[in-house]
Amino acid sequence: MASEDVKTSESAVSTIVNLAEEAKLAREGVKAPSYAILSICKSLVAGGVAGGLSRTAVAPLERLKILLQVQNPHSIEYNGTVQGLKYIWRTEGFRGLFKGNGTNCARIVPNSAVKFFSYEQASKGILYLYQQQTGNEDAQLTPLLRLGAGACAGIIAMSATYPMDMVRDRLTVQTDSSPYQYRGMFHALSTVLRQEGPRALHKGWLPSVIGVIPYVGLNFAVYESLKDWLIKNKQFGFAEDSELSVTTRLACGAAAGTVGQTVAYPLDVIRRRMEMVGWKDAASVVTGDGRNKAPLEYTGMIDAFRKTVRHEGFGALYKGLVPNSVKVVPSIAIAFVTYEVVKDILGVEIRISD
């Protein structure tokens, strides 16, 4: 027993010493493997919480936006933001406002986690290459380089979670009048896979990736550049001790979201419509003859653009823009601020702008 106690004591001392060494390494800027892994996990958790919270806060507007994007122009049910929300409430009740949000969170949590983490890693890599190229070790990321890092993060996150995004949109569009009902995310995934094949899970991927480059890229670039500018221009009184208030960061996030979504919105409409192709039992989606049967068939992204403009006019590329604008401003703002706040709570020293 004595020898076991001695071994236990030695083990405890060894553990304390190891923890102390890791803490020392962390303070000195040298990350031990376990510390680095823990930091990565914390960063991923912060990104996931930010995504889930921000998307749930605007779930009713998210659903209405998608319904407006894909509804049949000859059978209008959702006509504007307020009327659309009232119609959903009247026909489907409170739960109808959040239909598809569970699947959306199941998608957005890993998507947001990967996106924020990928942005941090891409920023570090691009900054290192930029410093090597210029020979200036004190060089900082320019807005253009931040745009590139954001684009990389958006492509990685979108590609990693796209099948979940595709079935989320179908669950969101599904109404009580839909002839066939998906029972949930996994049922939708298995049904699409069985009835339409593996490629169906990636319908609309190309316009999504093309759209995510300016959208996510501009989100990060505008947000980070605005923060840096406000901190450097202290005469405006927004920064105290190189820190911005939560309100100011929310405003920066709102500006970033507005710029990004305005540029990328037409591609978002096209990818939603391409995701509906092949869904024979959809209700209230775009058709060629005005009747509620199968959606228009698109051979690709260019064909979808051409048919949308020909049948409905150029304005169709901006259907749902109003609820999306109302949604995206608080959504992006909440996501950025939540990410930084959660990282502060978890004790992660590095922020997305470091």
UniProtKB/TrEMBL annotation:
Extent of the Solcar repeats: 38-125, 141-229, 244-345
Location, primary (coarse class): membrane
GO biological process: transmembrane transport
Cellular localization per UniProt: Membrane
Alphabetized Gene3D superfamilies for the sequence: Mitochondrial carrier domain
Domain of life of the source: Eukaryota
Membrane in keyword set: yes
Mode of membrane association: Multi-pass membrane protein
Keyword Transmembrane part of the UniProt annotation: yes
UniProt-listed InterPro entries: MCP (IPR002067), MCP_dom_sf (IPR023395), MCP_transmembrane (IPR018108)
Gene Ontology annotations for the cellular component aspect, listed alphabetically: mitochondrial inner membrane
Keywords from the UniProt entry: Membrane, Repeat, Transmembrane, Transport
Family the UniProt entry places it in: Belongs to the mitochondrial carrier (TC 2.A.29) family.
Record protein name field: Mitochondrial adenine nucleotide transporter ADNT1
Classification of source organism: Eukaryota, Viridiplantae, Streptophyta, Embryophyta, Tracheophyta
